[in-house]
Amino acid sequence: MMFEEANISSSYLRASSLEIGSIEFFALTAALLFSIYILFKYKGSLLQKLFYIYIFFIPFTDKVYRLKGVLEPTEILAIIIIFLFMSKKFIRGESFSTKLGLHTKYMGSLFLLFLFSLLLPTFYYFTPMKNVIEESLSTPFAANLKKFPLFNWLYLIRFGLIMAVFYVFYQMIEKEFFKKSIKIYVWAGSFASIVGIIQTLFFLLGYKVFGVFFLAGFPRVKGLAHEPATFGAFLVSSLALTFFLSNRKLKLRISHIIVQTIGLILTMSASAIPIYILFLAFLTIQGLIKKIKLKELYLYYSFIGIVVIVFLLSGLVTPETISYNMNKLVLYVKELCTIQSLGSVRGTDIHYLKEALQKNPILGIGIFNFIFYPTAATNTFLMLLAELGIFGFSIFLFLTIFFYWGIFQLNKLKCYKSNPYALPLFIFILVVPFQLLALRVLAFHYIWFMIALFVAIGKLNFVHRNQENKV
Fold this sequence. Notes:
Elements: H1 2-6, H2 23-41, H3 46-56, H4 73-91, H5 102-124, H6 133-136, H7 140-143, H8 150-172, H9 175-204, E1 212-215, E2 218-221, H10 228-249, H11 254-267, H12 272-289, H13 297-314, H14 319-338, H15 348-359, H16 380-411, H17 414-417, H18 422-430, H19 432-438, H20 445-470
Antiparallel strand pairs: 1-2
């Protein structure tokens, strides 16, 4: 194969440090320079500017970017944003907004319940991690956390930071800030895709690239993420928002779409790519049912089709590669339906789930412990059932069902039907359960940011109606 001749390395190597001259180093440097540009050139308050930087850093999930191998850039920024916001409220004596939509109140209460369900097994029941943790964490400092379940507590803190920072987002939301946040996210998706494309080019030139590995003769790319499937999942949301922006302005963001589609294809993710196709199918059906004129949908499909055809004609993607991924996807679906391990690594989730539940069926084995079993642990539902037990998992299911009941109710409102963002965001949230079935994405910020955008639409429409009444 052409790729095997280009680079003798056929295994997946993850970078463990920021080497001077590496692609990771230049990516972080470019992101920091862009952050400085936002701070000095963008209009708005300091909190808004920090939030723009936070959004741009959402795809940076690789451990190479983590402080001491523990905190990601988004988590560090979240701490700063929350601290400044609370200081502003308490030191200056400013009041909190009381205009919280009913849906937002439900979500806040249910999320607190979910955090409580995470807390119980972490506090009361803990299975010491195996020695494999020393290989999976990037620094001795992080590896030493296995002496006490601090890493599990950090995983719990991550959920708390996500909840708090998006509460801040909801408190400070206004239309221009909302629109610019989406634009920043689209640029983050394109920037991450460019990093992935550069990783591939250097790989083909024969350089040792940590972010690339082989699958059926094809180099899979992880971009800024810790592995290709997560990178692909992020790009699904980024491409979705790129189309939302295009639909609103009635001007197709051609360059963003092409770059991000290439990035998604380079991941060769057997989960993220089908999920994106599912998103497009749902969007088309909803658009037809609601009789919304998605004027550029067919042009959008055309550009995606051209990119795919170019990949096929150039040999970057072969029929064998597509067949391999399709068989892998079918095999995983069969394993989920038959509750058997038929050869896929992901199928072992069910086997080890039974083992975990035998230890403690009520409270589970403790948050973040299932990934240290010899399993891929890629199914969020199975992972949470093992880690939280019947008690915590039941709360999670209640949270999920109640949330979807809420968004279906919101989607019926006229203000949502007329809003150019609402339908595509609604469709993205519809496909989230499919991501949870195939990926461990619950703790990643991008998925909660998309939910925050959807919920914020209600507040923006509420403000708009009040302004019209005053006039």
